[in-house]
Amino acid sequence: MSGKTVLSPATGSFPLKNAGRADVRRSAPARTWAFGSTLLKVLALALFAFLLFGPLANLVLWSVAERWYAPFKLPVSYGMRYWEVVFRPTGDAMSSLATSVAIACLTVVVALAVSVPAGYALARLRLPWRTGLMILFLLPQAFPSVAIYINVARVFYGLGLTGTIPGVVLVHAAHGLVYSVWIAAAAFAAVDRDLELAARNIGASPLRTFFTITLPLAAPGIMASAIFVFLESLDEFTGTFFVGVPQVTTLPLLLYNASMGGNYQIASITALILLVPSVLFMIVIERFLKADVLSKVGQ
Amino acid sequence: MARPSFFGLLLIAPALAMIGVLFLYPLGFSLVSAFAGPDGGASLASFHKAYELYSTDILFTLFIVIVSTLLTALFSIAIAGILTLSETPWLVSVLRNLYRWPLFIPFIVAAQCMRTFLAKNGLMNNSFVALGIIEPIQATSLLDWRGIIITFVWKQVPFVTLMLAGAMASIDRATIEAGRNLGASRLRVLIELVLPQVAQTLLVGLVLSFVTMLSVLSVPMMVAGSQPTMLTVDMAFRINSYGDYSTANALGVISYIIAGTVAWIYLRHNVRREAQA
């Protein structure tokens, strides 16, 4: 708790960083001014919080609103009926969730399968045009993606990959490659080279050194890149929209269809399901992505 | 370690192949398709058609993305500035815990949130009416260009702020203290002492945000259904309704040019900075 503050017993106010500038005994106008300033800060923070959480609160309200129409400011009746609809085993949402999770897991496997070797090579071996290669992996993120996806869909159509899970997995994996390659490279770069040399000195083969020393030490960073790729895949809309429809329906597509069809309850519940992994991720990411790895990302 | 490692190239080859097949090849495809005429030869016909049909949308897209980027810059600087320079610990602590929330929220979820929040009968108008700030008759739907900008800014400010606050935290506190001791106001310290030192980080964050916003499809589709709309929606429409790849790809090339221009401005700034250093 870095931001923890303790009320100063002497003044009953918060301790000041620059105590020299503030008089301990304030005159009446100064007290009024300080109070006004505090009030202003509280009001500004309240407005900020409202604008930040208002949209999310509206989402939650819609998810438990059974009936809500104008001119009522709050739902006319509340209930979990739509949650039951969503979580019904035969419901669209459950099958979309299963599809989304399956695609995300496969995407992680594909992305890690190509990016762990690539990350190791970029971090440890001598490669020509290394910077150019790093930038190449960034490009799919740096280009307006709709224009790419419509052409990927066209190429995939010729190969029979549109509307299939493998097609969507490939699109998601290419999209997530910048995270997996860059973070994997940073994770390998952060592994102490002396440990590898020590292992080699006592007779370990290069392969054994890699699997018993380098890979385990780089594992938290690689885990972080896997989480990134998983979330990117779970949330990906545009690529699935062009390559997956109409056969493959992921959660974002279900959310889109429900929302455009005016079914705000289903859309809101789907949106809340999509939020869960993102919030969990925000909590656990600091455990996996250590500062020494972060400082090497993109180098 | 002197010669390029063949083994290294072998290790990186699968990843390169993937980028080649799933990014470079479609990219080439889009360029060829955009510049192909009806008779198969090179032609600018698709661009002519794209301009005739969508010149308003091109300007609209530029307007949305530029305004959103500027607002994102403004809010990020304000929040990061408060986090760095404020002398009110509780304010900093609350703000630090608040601002990050939209960071990992997907665009499509943000779009759904705003679709309900900004509507005429959405929570925002209802709250303002309930607090007596506006009359019910004054409630208007913001689900048009304003809605798109609000959604983009809401989603991108935490990202840029995170980068900016990190950069501000790592600059030398002594310059800030010196400025304050010489009597400069905090606003002046922020603008004249802090910002110039983190300009590079701010620029990177804004360039990334700009290109991201340029390529989002869900937000313009879900938040503002009406005309004019953004180029991503037009591209999807040309493909899904007409199978018209050449016009869609011409629009795609136009969006590459917009993104490329921004990248060029960034690189030029970088080169100039390095020349000065």
Largest interface: A-B, 89 and 92 residues
Q: Could you state the order of secondary-structure elements of chain B as H and E?
A: HHHHHHHHHHH
Q: Helical residue percent of chain A? A: over 70%
Could you tell me the number of beta strands of chain B? 0
> Whole-number radius of gyration of chain A?
26 Å
Overall number of strands of chain A: 2
Query: What would you call the shape of chain B?
Result: globular
What structural category do the secondary elements of chain B indicate? mainly alpha
Mean pLDDT of chain A: 83
Rounded to the nearest angstrom, the distance between the terminal CA atoms of chain B is 31 Å
Mean pLDDT of chain B: 89
Quick overview of this protein structure:
Chain A has 299 residues and is mainly α. Helices cover 71% and strands 2% of the residues of chain A.
Key traits:
heterodimer; A: 299 residues; mainly alpha; two-stranded antiparallel ribbon; 2% strand; disordered N terminus; B: 277 residues; 77% helix; 0% strand; globular
Q: Mind explaining what this structure looks like?
A:
The complex is a heterodimer of chains A (299) and B (277). Chain A has helices spanning 28-63, 81-87, 92-124, 130-142, 145-159, 165-189, 193-201, 206-235, 238-243, 251-260, 264-288, 291-294, and strands at residues 65-67, 77-78. Chain A has twelve helices and two strands; from the N terminus they run αββααααααααααα. Chain A has 299 residues and is mainly alpha-helical. In chain A, strands 1-2 form a two-stranded antiparallel ribbon. Chain B has 277 residues and is mainly α. The longest helix of chain B is centred in the first third of the chain and has 41 residues, at 45-85. In chain B, 77% of the residues lie in helices and 0% in strands. The model of chain B has no long low-confidence stretch (mean pLDDT 89). Chain B is globular. Chain B contains eleven helices and no strands. In chain B, 44% of the residues are buried. Classes of the chains: A mainly alpha (299), B mainly alpha (277). The interface between A and B is large, with 89 and 92 residues.
